[in-house]
Automatic annotation (TrEMBL):
Keyword terms: Amino-acid biosynthesis, ATP-binding, Diaminopimelate biosynthesis, Kinase, Lysine biosynthesis, Nucleotide-binding, Transferase
Catalysed transformations (reactions): L-aspartate + ATP = 4-phospho-L-aspartate + ADP
Protein family (similarity comment): Belongs to the aspartokinase family.
Binding-site residues, ATP: K5, F6, G7, G8, Y225
Function: Catalyzes the phosphorylation of the beta-carboxyl group of aspartic acid with ATP to yield 4-phospho-L-aspartate, which is involved in the branched biosynthetic pathway leading to the biosynthesis of amino acids threonine, isoleucine and methionine.
A GO molecular function held by the record: ATP binding
Any single GO BP term: lysine biosynthetic process via diaminopimelate
Protein name (record): Aspartokinase
Source species of the chain: Staphylococcus carnosus (strain TM300)
Positions bound to substrate: T49, E120
Length: 459
């Protein structure tokens, strides 16, 4: 059995939905179909989830929201019209929106989840009804009926373990099953959404629940690029990557697959394939537990993410002081700051965090560190970018770091810090934000492509 999830652009219009159903219906194993809300049809378009967000904002502000509601209904009306479906379904959608606004008027966070989840929910109902009308037995199953039980914190649903037993029962249903992505139900009966982009998470949960042999994730790209294709012309698509590599790449800014979606599939070692709805014949990128290490592709991918702040602390003889780091970490904890990296030397330590973690608290944190640790020097820089180079093969090959630093040196890029975790699956380089794009180009061209494959970068 396979679970196939289709992202927003794959279900944005009638013609896209027809492509989705051609894919879904062409394979009997493709039994469970998870759909997103209609996404953008063209670059200036607005995603249905964002239209729902506007409806939510108007209704909590007590303003007239009718035109916002109409915009949403019109998105589905276009699809219903083009698929030549009965328009009665649109009245149902309109009633559901009104009922939810009425029911949750006094519970703002609940209203947000109740409205935003409609994007996926309406699409799933619509697509199931259409597929049935085409003679393919198809059942719409809500997350409630599928048994997707989640925690009760609005917008941050986390799956509860007991869901998996419920989901397994979906195997007994005959025909195709269409489930809306992006939300579940808490034990109190509330609709709770996953973080934005969370339909990937629903797909992964269902794949684990029914013990699927494959989780197919369809979007509008033919796989995962090794590097941002906006920076490198003809960037390569990976044929396979491991869960652990993918986790590191997501951290560094790869957004093709939601990082929270890896956890359920990783647990049961269910392979995931990232495929293109518009080019289903392309092989896509497989995300698996393990992969063969190929000497020509020691580095799977690389990315440079901006928006980091580093606190640099120096203290003579720091290495001999017991509890020095604990004191610093206590200051961070007291200020509710989580950090990402902590490269250190004998007389100094740097703490790197996402800038939003410390924004507005900089002086307070520095003063507290000064007070607790009696430091010699203390500084903070907020123009840091982190270049992450990820590859399973790096642990087995001598000289990879050398290749990367050589490529960066040739591009005249100053390395502020370097860190390699014990897993040797990734290397992290702290650089200036102004060097970020050049660093990606230099590293990709110097280390990622075999000599005959070096492509020229976009100027
Ligand atoms: N529709 C939701 C969003 O735009 C969830 C998703 O598409 O995965 O974030």
């Amino acid at each position: 059995m396979k679970v196939a999830k289709f992202g927003g652009s794959s279900v944005a219009s009638a013609s896209q939905i027809q492509k989705v159903l051609n894919i879904a219906n062409s394979d009997d194993d493709r039994k469970i179909i998870v759909v997103s809300a209609p996404g953008k049809r063209h670059p200036e378009d607005i995603k249905t989830t964002d239209l729902l967000l506007r409806l939510y904002e108007k209704s909590v502000a007590g303003l007239d929201y009718q035109n916002k509601k109409d915009e949403i209904i019109n998105r589905y009306a276009d699809i219903v019209h083009d698929l030549k479906m009965d328009t009665a379904i649109l009245d149902e959608f309109s009633t559901i929106l009104e009922e939810r606004i009425e029911k949750y008027r006094a519970h703002f966070p609940r209203l947000k989840d109740a409205l935003l989840s409609c994007g996926e929910d309406f699409n799933a109902r619509l697509i199931a009804q259409y597929n049935n009308s085409q003679g393919v037995p198809t059942t719409y199953i809500s997350p409630l009926d599928a048994g997707i039980i989640v925690t009760d914190t609005p917008q941050f649903a986390q799956i509860l373990e007991e869901s998996y037993g419920n989901i397994y029962k979906l195997r007994d249903i005959k025909g195709k099953i269409i489930v809306p992505g992006f939300f579940g139900y808490s034990k109190k009966g509330n609709i709770v959404t996953f973080p934005r982009g969370g339909s990937d998470i629903t797909g992964a949960i269902l794949a684990r629940g029914v013990r699927a042999k494959l989780y197919e994730n369809y979007s509008d790209v033919s796989g995962i690029y090794r590097v941002n294709p906006n920076l490198i012309k003809d960037a390569e698509i990976m044929d396979e990557v491991t869960y652990r590599e993918m986790r590191e790449l997501s951290y560094a800014g790869f957004s093709v697959f939601h990082d929270e979606a890896l956890q359920p599939v990783q647990k049961e070692r269910i392979p995931v394939v990232i495929k293109n709805t518009n080019r289903p014949q392309d092989p896509g990128t497989y995300i698996r537990y393990d992969r063969e290490i190929r000497p020509d592709h020691l580095i799977s991918g690389l990315s440079c993410d901006k928006g980091f702040t580093v606190i640099n602390i120096s203290k003579y003889l720091m290495n001999r002081q017991v509890g020095f780091t604990r004191k610093i970490l206590t200051v961070l904890e007291d200020n509710d700051i989580s950090f990402d990296h902590m490269p250190s030397g004998i007389d100094g330590i740097s703490i790197i965090m996402r800038t939003h973690q410390i924004e507005g608290k900089e002086n307070k944190v520095l003063n507290e560190i000064r007070k607790q640790c009696d430091v010699d020097e203390l500084s903070i820089e907020s123009d840091l970018a982190i270049l992450m180079v990820v590859g399973l093969g790096m642990s087995q090959m001598i000289g990879t770091a050398n290749k990367i630093t050589e490529a960066l040196a040739k591009a005249n890029i100053n390395l502020k810090m370097i860190n390699q975790g014990a897993s040797e699956i990734s290397m992290m380089f702290g650089i200036s934000v102004k060097d970020a794009d050049n660093a990606v180009r230099a590293t990709y061209e110097g280390c990622c492509c075999s000599a005959n494959k070096i492509k020229s970068s976009v100027e």
